[in-house]
Amino acid sequence: MEQDTAYAICRFSDIPSQRAIGFQLMIVGDDGAPRPWPIVIVRWGRQVFGYLNRCPHNGVNLDWERNQFLDTNGTKLLCGKHGSTFELGTGLGVDGPCKGQSLTPIALAVLDGDICVTGVTLVEDEDEACDEEA
Ligand code: FES
């Protein structure tokens, strides 16, 4: 499988602006074995940002309650375990135990109205790959 394949995760319109949604995906690891790849996608106006859904502090999912990713102001990503907050656009930890550390960014592209991940090989089930040239 090619690394430059773009995999459609959801429609751009599925995520309202200033909201974040988690997806439990599987990728093919370097050793060829599938492994879980939880991600969070944030939409802010016309922009989308993607990060691994893994807190740099304890390695847990950020959303202690499912899909509760944002702080009370809705302007930062929040780890529900110990309250670290992260800039939406960069993933940089700005408060809490993760201050100065960063979430792991993932490459996203919006193609033909779909939010797609690129640069990895996903284990596909019913999700369809979308065309790079779209
Ligand atoms: S596990 Fe996220 S701040 Fe501690």
TrEMBL record:
SUPFAM superfamilies according to UniProt: ISP domain
Gene Ontology molecular functions: 2 iron, 2 sulfur cluster binding; metal ion binding
Keywords: 2Fe-2S, Iron, Iron-sulfur, Metal-binding
Domain Rieske: 38-117
Entry protein name: Rieske domain-containing protein
Source organism: Bradyrhizobium cosmicum
Upper taxonomic lineage: Bacteria, Pseudomonadati, Pseudomonadota, Alphaproteobacteria, Hyphomicrobiales
